[in-house]
Specification:
Length: 569
């Protein structure tokens, strides 16, 4: 890798950076009202081109047009972007009216001198469409509610003070990541953006150019494609002052230190090639901690589907795909649950291994685990009963590989063991998942929250997948704070964050243990059926499309069709 001063000349890139420098002046002069109008323009363009977006995404991922899995592309694509644009628009409306974006959000005390901001449900539509799901953003310890209110809005509090030109190195797996990161750079940091697409997503260039047409016209965003040479030229360009990447820690380190042996040596010496700040979201090895309890056969089957979704959504090509299932060796039902899990893994819809290197990573898992179980005809791998020092705890397979390990204990003892294991043995801090039945949760009471508070993860999901945190526009998304470029783990900084909060530490998502109507029959009193992001949801494509249409223009008239589709799922 060449040094940051040995820049490879890419003339179209130079022209793009020049346009962005001019656009920065336009951005500085735009009022909050004009910026909110720009968000609305982005939303309208996303709505117009949503079907094209999903069609292209399905071709990239080799999904049949009639597959229920098309719902993944609606929900993790246009829906995610439309929800974020609406949340940011609301925040700018508050700021333009002289109010804090936090006004009206419930806040409460959280353990360790933290403040919890309830961001889901945010309105009556959330209560209806995501009944039983909640999300809180927790502050860093020692931050008061007043501190949060005063800082909310980030760079939009001082809109004339721009942040220069930044490059966003887009992800190749979830297709809303690149546009979401671009919008966040623009609004959270007042930074105009050169978006370099991942080559996997190059076919989406025409769609993204249409969505960002007004931003491109004003010189606020430029989109480029190409290989590693273009990425390197963008990162090292003297007109670029900041880098944001979504990818692997290996990609991060290659940018910061160099990707060869000299790069590793440079990192050990505390030296860098990169001479500008970098933020990142880098994935990791995510756990699912199952707290032992007394479950029915239907509970076992449903939670097996839930965990398989956390693993097989997007065929496991997610930075927050669950990889290590942590079970209690003292749980009487552990064998029955693993049997239900094996069945759910085998029966989940077939997927094409579209992401580069998937077969090699699966082969690596097999090579290091002679006892691995290959589920026939699926390409899926189950690694059961792993020892304490297994490589699966530190190597992100980024594919359809699920590992299981066992720890002793029940109740609080098991939770303490599992939290210590996750914190000390697993690579990364992006997301952790916990499954606990309502009866066991009631027995633990406040001890449950006390037990999970030490988990060092940017998103913790209880009876939900951390991917719900990704989809919650007003929640924060990113690694647990404190990483440095020398030990980036799951990354540095946050994104999404539609309320534009500062001094945040994590997001806590909670969901129902059972779907409707079983939830009512077992006194859980929530109305959410099987969620549309489940890989086993039969109507996910229809529900996902209708949710995206609703996010673009929320009206009461659209709700009955959404409910009807969701209940059939």
């Amino acid at each position: 890798m060449t040094t940051s001063t040995d820049r490879v000349a890419v003339p179209p890139l130079d022209a793009a950076v020049d346009r962005l420098r001019d656009g920065e002046k336009i951005w500085a002069a735009m009022s909050l009202r004009d910026r909110r109008d720009l968000l609305n323009t982005l939303s309208q363009a996303t709505r117009r081109h949503a079907q094209e977006w999903v069609d292209v995404a399905c071709r990239i991922k080799q999904l049949p047009a009639d597959s229920a899995l098309v719902g993944e592309e609606w929900i993790s694509g246009p829906y995610a972007l439309l929800s974020s644009l609406a949340a940011l628009s609301e925040s700018l409306t508050a700021l333009d009216g002289g109010r804090s974006p936090l006004e009206g959000f419930p806040m409460s005390s959280a353990p360790g001198g933290r403040v919890a901001v309830k961001v889901l449900p945010h309105n009556i539509f959330d209560r209806l469409l995501l009944n039983g799901f909640t999300a809180e953003v927790w502050s860093e310890p020692g931050i008061s509610a007043g501190d949060l209110r005063d800082a909310a809005g980030l760079a939009q509090r001082t809109p004339t003070e721009t942040g220069g030109v930044g490059v966003v190195l887009g992800a190749g797996n979830i297709f809303s990541i690149a546009p979401l990161d671009t919008v966040y750079e623009l609004f959270a940091h007042n930074r105009v953006v050169l978006l370099k697409l991942n080559p996997i997503t190059d076919p989406l260039l025409p769609v993204f150019e249409k969505i960002f047409a007004r931003c491109i016209e004003l010189g606020l965003v430029a989109i480029v494609t190409g290989g590693a040479d273009v990425g390197h030229a963008a990162v090292t360009h003297p007109g670029i002052g900041h880098v944001h990447i979504t990818g692997s820690v290996k990609s991060h380190d290659a940018i910061v230190f160099g990707g060869d042996a000299e790069g590793r040596a440079r990192r050990e010496r505390g030296e860098t090639l990169l001479n500008k700040p970098i933020t990142s979201e880098l994935g990791g090895v995510s756990p699912i901690i199952v707290v032992p309890g007394k479950w029915s056969a239907r509970d076992l089957a449903y939670q097996a589907e839930h965990i398989v979704t956390q693993k097989l959504h997007n065929n496991g090509y997610n930075c927050v795909a669950s990889q290590v299932l942590v079970l209690s060796s003292d749980w009487d039902q552990k064998d029955a649950f693993v049997a239900a899990l094996r069945k759910a893994l085998a029966n989940a819809p077939a997927r094409a291994p579209y992401y580069p290197g998937s077969d090699d990573r699966c082969a690596s898992a097999l090579a290091t685990h002679p006892d691995a179980e290959r589920l026939p005809g699926t390409g899926r791998i189950l690694l059961d009963n792993l020892p304490a020092d297994d490589v699966a705890f530190t190597e992100e397979y980024f594919g359809p590989v699920l590992a299981i390990t066992y720890l002793p204990g029940r109740g609080r003892q098991f939770l303490d063991n599992a939290v210590e294991f996750a914190n000390s043995r697993l690579a990364g801090t992006l997301g952790a998942n916990i499954v606990i039945d309502p009866r066991t949760a009631r027995e633990l009471g406040a001890e449950f929250t006390d037990a999970i508070t030490p988990l060092r993860y940017g998103t913790i999901a209880v009876n939900a997948w951390t991917g719900v945190g990704y989809l919650t526009a007003r929640a924060t998304w990113g690694a647990f704070p404190g990483h440095t470029i020398y030990d980036a783990q799951s990354g540095i900084g946050i994104v999404h964050n539609g309320v534009l909060l500062d001094h945040t530490e994590r997001t806590i998502v909670r969901g129902p243990f059972r779907p409707f109507p079983r939830s009512i029959l077992t006194r859980e009193f929530t109305l959410s059926p099987r969620p549309p992001w489940f890989v086993t949801n039969r109507t996910a494509a229809t529900t996902g499309r209708k949710l995206a249409e609703f996010a673009a223009d929320p009206t009461w008239a659209k709700l009955p069709a959404i409910f009807a589709s969701a209940l059939r799922g």
